[in-house]
Amino acid sequence: MPTAAKLVAAICLAALAFFTSELIKTLMPASTDFGMFTLVNVALGIGLGWVVIGRRAGRGTSAGISNGITGTAALVFWGLFVQATNEMVSLAMRNRYDGPVEALAAIFELMAEFGAVLVDFRVIALLFCGAIVTGWFSEFAASRWR
Q1: What confidence tens digit (pLDDT) does each residue in 97-131 have?
Q2: Parent domain of 96
């Protein structure tokens, strides 16, 4: 059932995904081809904001902030997973793997490699502050508009 809290959470997490994606682009080499990197992350933000944060809204401010942090952690995990899977498929099409098990294992290696880029103060600060704001806004929407 659509609620204002779900909509606000989806918009806020999508905005956080957009700004984080754009910040990550500045941390990567200039020759990196990002393709639909930002759009995929924004779509994940919309879905996860609606399902993870919006569904749990209405339980108080501290629970809302915790939900924002949980939703942001889910966004980071699924963003890394989807981007690593995309890269694995790209590499698999160039015959870089000997078999399907090696290709599946490469997803987690690529997630770790991509996750190392996230270990930057600006990225961590943006994700943490965005998580708090997202959780607080969704709680505000849940209490204000029923």
Answers
A1: 888 999 999 999 999 999 999 999 999 999 999 99
A2: 4-28+35-144
Is the CB of residue 48 less than 8 Å from the CB of residue 119?
no
pLDDT tens, residue by residue, 53-103: 988 888 888 999 999 999 999 999 999 999 999 999 999 999 888 889 999
User: In what helix (H) or strand (E) does residue 76 lie, and over which residues does it extend?
Assistant: helix 61-92
Task: Indicate the pTM of the whole model.
Answer: 0.91
Tally of domains within the chain? 1
| CA proximity to 64, closest of 139, 124, 114, 142 | 139
Nearest Cα neighbor of 132 from 54, 38, 61, 80 is 61
